[in-house]
Amino acid sequence: MSLNQRMSPSLSETIPTLQVPVCTTEGFTLVELLVVIGIAGIFMMIAVPAFQEWREHSAVNAATMAVFSKLKQARTVAVSDRRDVKIVFDTVNHDIIYDEYTRAVGVCSYCNNARLDLAQFSSLVVLTSNQASTTFKGNGSAVNNGTLKLKVGTYFKCITVNRIGRAYIQQAGQISANCNGI
User: How far lies 127's CA from each of 116, 149, 156, 166, 175, in Å?
Assistant: First the structure.
């Protein structure tokens, strides 16, 4: 060995060698993917009917509160203006015409003849009533008092207007199977 060879390190000692990792398979196997898809399918089978039931209940609850609000508003307007206010229940188109009394009497500058379309809550909301209309008198009493039923699927709520003009929502324990004859 010469002196030069001893003094200079070899190339293999100065340059580090790169270690290339051995390729391993990464990802999911087909069996793992099928298990995850199966679990997701089971969750969907549970969630979709519950979601549909929730939508039905919320549509009926929202429509009930809107109708209840209009009934209370009609009575308040009748008492404050000392005039009759009529609400017509259109069971064919499933909507309510508020303050419609003046059509038969003539033009009324402060009557609004507004329409509450129940389809805005759900196209499946069905309105039934045992009266075609209710009229609130100037003293707050109601003529043609009766019960309304708002229904989607099997879920329904009832609103009753009594003779003294008080409207109330019947609670679940108070509702008979036919909602007072409707």
Answer: 12, 6, 10, 20, 16
CATH 3.30.1360.40 fits 30-169, yes or no: no
- Give 56-86 pLDDT, tens digit per residue: 899 999 999 999 998 998 899 889 888 888 8
d(CA 9, CA 21): 28
Pairing type for strands 147-152 and 155-161 reads: antiparallel
For residue 121 the two structure tokens come to 């809550």
pLDDT in tens, 85-143: 888 888 888 888 877 655 455 555 556 667 888 888 888 899 988 888 899 998 999 99
Residue spans of the domains in the chain: they are: 30-169
What is the arrangement of strands in the sheet containing 167-169, beginning at the earlier edge strand?
126-129, 147-152, 155-161, 167-169
Q: What is the pLDDT of residues 26-66, one digit of tens each?
A: 788 999 999 999 999 999 999 998 888 899 899 999 999 99
Q: Is the dihedral of CA 116, 104, 162, 78 positive or negative?
A: positive
